[in-house]
Amino acid sequence: MRKCFFWFLLLCVQIGFAQQNLNWKGYFSYNQIKDISESNTALFAAAENALFVKNLTTNSIKTINTVDGLSGQTISAMYHSVAFNKTIVGYDDGLMIVVNDADGSMLNVVDIINKNIPTNIKKINHFMEYNGVLYVSCDFGIVQYKLATLEFGDTYFIGPNGAEIKVYQTTIFNNDIYAVTQNNGIRKAAINNPNLIDFAQWQVFDNGFWNGITTFNNQLIGLNLDTGIYKYNGSFFQQIGVVGEIGVDIRSNADQLIVTSKNHVFIFNQALSQIAHIQPFQASPETLTFTCATTINGNIYIGTNEKGILTSTLSNPFAFEFIMPNGPVRNNLFSINTTSSNLWAVYGDYTEIYDPNPFLYLGISKYANNQWTNIPYSEVHLSGSASPDLVRVTVNPNNEKQIFVSSYYAGLLKFEDDQLVTVYNKSNSGLETIFPTDAQDSNIRIEQSVYDRAGNLWMTNGLVKNALKVLKTNNQWQSYDMTTILDNYFNARFGRMVIDKSGTKWICTSKDGVVAFNENGNIFKKITMGETSGNLPIEDVRAIAIDNRNQLWIGTRQGLRVLPSVNSFTSDEQMKANAIIILEDGLPQELLYEQFITDIVVNGSNQKWIGTADSGVFLFSSDGQQTLYHFTKDNSPLPSNVINDIDINATTGEVFFATDKGMVSFQGTATRPADDLSGAYVYPNPVRPGFTGTVKIAGLISKANIKITDIEGNLVYETTSEGGTVEWDTTAFGKYKVASGVYMIFIAGEDGTETKVKKVMIIR
């Protein structure tokens, strides 16, 4: 693609993004615990794709995520080496990341990813340290990793005739290494055998079906798929306990043996007597699923799938607390809505073909004042009803404390001060169910709702004839029949909607392109596929935005189109959208050709952030001819290339990217223009030695002229603002860095009637 003005340097090995990505922030969920590890003074927890460390002395919590250099892929195993002060993270795809806990630096280890074996059997299942070597259990076998040199050793393929087999876990007992495999029992070999790469050196120790093994108090303990816990007595495995369901984790330390299943944690002492049995209902009335557990200094720590770490003491195992860094409920945010002071997130969802099944019964998350508030599902539906699949949040522009949440099954939910006050459905509104004769207030498909300038709330009601609805300021409902514009209303699915300055509603559909409507005359029109019907590449439109020049940007499942002016709605001619043609290697190409576009957002400088289903996110110039940024999971802290939603805090310029693996933000400079120059300011000021960023002049009005001179009046920089902020790289027109000194910043409105003078000191 075109030459970019900015690229991140991808460091494939050391350090990653931690210190250089000061423009990025991470907003991750730490609720879904994949694995835990420990030292005497700290608990290490791996969530879905991020870590947190709890200092057991100070009770402080440190988080580590993609902004710090972790991968956004799914974590499958994690281990902390006390001897080497390193934390090793393993992933589903075979990636390993070694975190140096002394300085926070990271090493990405891609050797397993690069192995010439099928990609679907590279998952890392377990780490076991012995004499400075980490034995990595994978879906194909076992790999040695030397912690002193951070290099790989041998790889053991221990299946029949050297076949690749899944290894769940390994342990050392009486100078032998034992490996639990998926369908080939327990394999055993002498740990000091120099020829363990020969599969013949591994003998079958037990032919049973096992999924865990550990050494505890000089005894070999196994977890069997028959739900039993067994110890080896020298001749055979003897049962010492029953889990009651298939176990998911077994581990031990000097004092306790800990066995975990989804609904049980059993803790045994050195005599193998059970000293604690914990079940989810004892800790919370909400659904809890256990994933792993350990003990440290007389305390129990249990990983859950829903609420981080559950902790208690062994002396009183039912006095529970939860440990989880502040964050949203989960990482797969379906959509977000940002205002100047709040960010709302919902988890949806529906499939690519707008199917809400299976339903998601999840609540709402709100980020304000640097804290997340998670409203549970129990508080987002009324007694006796269900409100699954919450897909969009609309904030009342005149009252931020009032929001409307669309359910793709149960209608429209109204909240005030974070409390549910009304659920609009067929019994109390103009909304309709898919099946008119259905007595239930269900199957009401509401996607996005949008306020017009008069304060009326418009929305689409899918799969019914009168599919366009409006809740007026007088609390009256009105419906509009869309059967005249839709090819088949029951096949139509509606997506995002925007309203232009003339009050025309522009609606994304899956089968009819873009549908436009204005109630002044009750006129429907559409832009669809085909040269004479609107020139879209496909009828399935997923994203839509009106820019500062009244152009309509249209994102489809197969590319981008732009309607030159929304005012063409009033013309008698068929509206036609055009592709943006750019030069790539001297050849004309269509911008975002055949890309699945998921969202389009216009910033304060009329630039376009465009998200895609598998290629990350782009920032284009106002006309689309220049690529300013292209962020992916490989060159930025984006945890995934799947972009679900984008939104911008127009006041601060912070751009939020909601992906299927978590949300991050980028500090943009295109902020909303101010009404006057009274609040104009400069930061940082002073600019100190070693600073490598840019100076921002913020609080500007639109099209303000900015001139920067040295103290003698020599001009060093000049620009015109499009939004509320401009940047200066502290060079004289990009040629060389200016010297230390005080620099004058002269700001003037487009007509010269409003002016402001600011100063900035630069210290080299």
Automatic annotation (TrEMBL):
Signal peptide location in the record?
Answer: 1-18
Q: Does the keyword Signal apply?
A: yes
Q: Which residues form the PorZ N-terminal beta-propeller domain?
A: 43-203
Is GTP-binding included in the keywords of this UniProt record?
Answer: no
Q: Which domain of life is it from?
A: Bacteria
Which UniProt keyword terms apply here? Signal
Query: What protein is this chain from?
Result: T9SS type A sorting domain-containing protein
List the source organism: Flavobacterium silvisoli
**Taxonomic lineage per UniProt?**
Bacteria, Pseudomonadati, Bacteroidota, Flavobacteriia, Flavobacteriales
